[in-house]
Amino acid sequence: MVHFQQIALSNGVFLGEILLASSRLNAQSLPMVLKIREQIEAWRNDPLLVAVLVRGEGERAFCAGGDIRALYHAMNQPEFLYEGDDFFRHEYDLCRELHRYPKPVIAWGNGIVMGGGWGIFAAASHRIVTESSVLAMPEVSIGLFPDVGASFWLQQLQGQMGRLLALTGSRLNAADALAFGAAEFALPSHAFNDLMGILQELPWSGVGARDAELASGTLAALSAAWPCPLPDSVWLPLADEVEAMCAGDDLLAICERIQNYQGDAPALRLAAELQAAGSPTSIYLTWEMAQRARSLSYDEVVEMEWLGARNCLRHGDFHEGVRAKLIDRDDQPQWSPKELALVKFADIESFFLSP
To answer: Which of 109, 95, 84, 81 is nearest to 30 (CA)?
Structure first.
C-alpha cells in the first residue's frame, strides 16, 4: 500500500507526502508504483504543491526494495511474465521521473534503504539519513543486478565504494552514506515531527530551483543544530584498501582480490563471503552494466537496465536466487555456471538484447 496527503504550509501552499506502507518492510508492488507515478504527475502540474516528501511507514524501513515474491510467481507462470516486465518498466520510470522532478523531493531514509528503495532514495534531490539507516544493493545474492539506475549512480560514489557495493552487496551505514556521497543530510530519527514543523513554516516560493536551495539550506542548518548519533564509519578507514582492491578493468582480478582478502577488517571479510555466495552470472552482468553505463546518459542506462531485467526474468539465475533466499530459504542456490571464470561473455551479451 501507499498513502498520500497534502500538508498545508504556512503561506498557503502544500507539501505532498508519499508514505510507503507494506508488511514486507515497505517493499514496492506494481500497484504501489503505478499509484505513485499517477500522484506525482498530478502534483507536478499543481502550482500550489511546492515539494514532495517520501518516507516509509514505521521505524524499520524506508523501503526494502520490490516485491520479489510477486516476480517469482510471475517467473513460474510464463503467461504472467508481462507482469514482471511491467513492474520493472514502471519502477524504473518512477525513479527516472523523480530524478528529474521539477520540485524538491525530500527522502527521509530512516531504517532499511535497499534495492528499489535505494533507487527512490537516490533519485530524490534531498536525501536524509538517520542513525538507523542501512543502504545496500544486494541483487547479486538473488541472481539479479543493481538496477533502478544504480549502474549509473553507484559509480557516482566516492572512490571505488560503488563498485565494491555492486559486486558484493555490502552495506553502508549512515556515516558511510554521508562520507561517500549517498546522502547529504543526517537527522536523528526522533526529530521527524520537528522537521515537519519547520518545513511547514518555510517561505516556499513555488519556484523549483529557489525552493530546492531553501530546502538545502534548511536541512544543512538542522543537521548542524540537531546532531545525529551516527555510528562509526565502517568504510572510511578502509577506503584506501577498497580503492586498491577494486582498481582496474579486470573483473576476474578484482574479484580474486576481494575473495582472497586476508586482513582483519570484518567488513572486507564479509564482502568476500557475500561475493563468493553471489551469482557468478550476476556479478559479470553487474560489471558489464556499469562498464556500458560510463558512455550512456541516465535515460539510456534506464533502458539498458530494463532490457537486462526482462532477460533476468526469462533466463539466468534470478529464479533460482529468489527460490533459495526468499521462497524455500535453504540459502543453497544452484548457480549456473558456478564459477565466474566459467561465465561466457556471449551469454552476458544476450542480456542486452530484446527477449
So the answer is: 84
273-294 in b/e form (b: 16+ CB < 10 A) is ebbebbbbbbbbbbbbbbeebe
Residue type at position 170: S
What pLDDT does 316 receive? 85
Among candidates 302, 326, 327, 315, which has minimal Cα distance to 88?
A: 302
Please choose, from the candidates 110, 106, 108, 113, the residue with its C-alpha nearest in 3D space to the C-alpha of residue 131: 110
Distance of CA 87 to the CA centre of its chain: 15
CA–CA dist 217, 196 (Å, integer): 15
Overall fold of domain 2-352: 2-enoyl-CoA Hydratase; Chain A, domain 1 (3.90.226)
Residue located via cell numbers 558456478: 338
**The three grid cell numbers given for residue 248, joined into one nine-digit string:** 582496474
Residue 263: band (very low, low, confident or very high) from pLDDT cuts 50, 70, 90: very high
Sheet with 49-56, strands from edge to edge, namely: 2-8, 14-20, 49-56, 105-109, 126-129, 185-186
Per-residue pLDDT reduced to its tens digit, 25-71: 999 999 999 999 999 999 999 999 999 999 999 999 999 999 898 89
The dihedrals phi and psi of 248, each to the nearest 5 degrees, come to 95, 180
Q: Which residues of 163-176 are buried (b: 16+ CB within 10 A; e: fewer)?
A: bbbbbbbbbbbbbb
Q: Give the pTM.
A: 0.96
Distance from C-alpha of 12 to C-alpha of 307, rounded to nearest angstrom: 44
Domain ranges for the chain:
2-352
